[in-house]
Amino acid sequence: MSNSLLSLKDVHANIHQYNILHGVNLEVPKGEVTMLLGRNGAGKTTTLRTIMGLWQAHAGTIELAGMDVTRQPTAQIAKQGVGYVPEDMGIFSDLTVEENMRLAAVSAPLSQERMDRIFLAFPPLKTFWHSAAGNLSGGQKQMLSIARAMAEERQLYLIDEPTKGLAPAIINTMAAALSELKAKGATILMVEQNFEVAKYLGDHCAVMEDGKIIWTGPMNELAQDNELQERLMGLNMEAS
């Protein structure tokens, strides 16, 4: 894919003695949202962690904007403009919301313009700006986790299950904020179990099974094909 910002070619990765990724091939187009879907244990989170350098690929290549980052350390990958929102949120509970945000802005101080944009997306963060992050609700902590990735311009966002365990109202807020990020031309690779959110945000889709990509295509193609959903992911729903 000529406009790919991120490219994985035959990527294998082990966790301890277990081989989790068995030759992942994936293209993430620039300026669009790619959903990484699949059953639990398919290797989705491991894929994101391997891209971020938290797990080392033992075979294959990972290229970011044409540069081989397969062996680069996590800090170096982050410096190249990759924002990572882990499934466990990765916030500092003992620090305030403000301190969490300022720590995330490593390239330049957090500007008022950027703070205003984040507050517009996530109003509770303004309310609890001086509060300890550990005192936030689950949904507010997830807002902070995503806001940290938005603390400075990124060329790529890796987001792992941002709506997991959240109430419907918070999911709507989260989806709206990510939609706004998408509208500004962000490139996003996102793991998401909520198929409605995936349909709403996704431009492209890759489905994983047993550590491999087994299907890729437009998100709307999968969204409109119930038989394909059930075959690939065991879903049984009426597509809208």
Automatic annotation (TrEMBL):
Which SMART domains does the protein's record reference? AAA
Positions of the ABC transporter domain: 6-235
Pfam families per record: ABC_tran (PF00005)
Q: Which UniProt keywords apply?
A: Amino-acid transport, ATP-binding, Nucleotide-binding, Transport
**Any GO MF annotation of the entry:** ATP binding
By its UniProt entry, which InterPro entries does this protein fall under?
A: AAA+_ATPase (IPR003593), ABC_transporter-like_ATP-bd (IPR003439), ABC_transporter-like_CS (IPR017871), BCAA_Transport_ATP-bd_LivF (IPR052156), P-loop_NTPase (IPR027417)
Regarding protein family, the annotation reads: Belongs to the ABC transporter superfamily.
Name used for this protein in its record: ABC transporter ATP-binding protein
Highest lineage ranks of the organism?
Bacteria, Pseudomonadati, Pseudomonadota, Alphaproteobacteria, Hyphomicrobiales
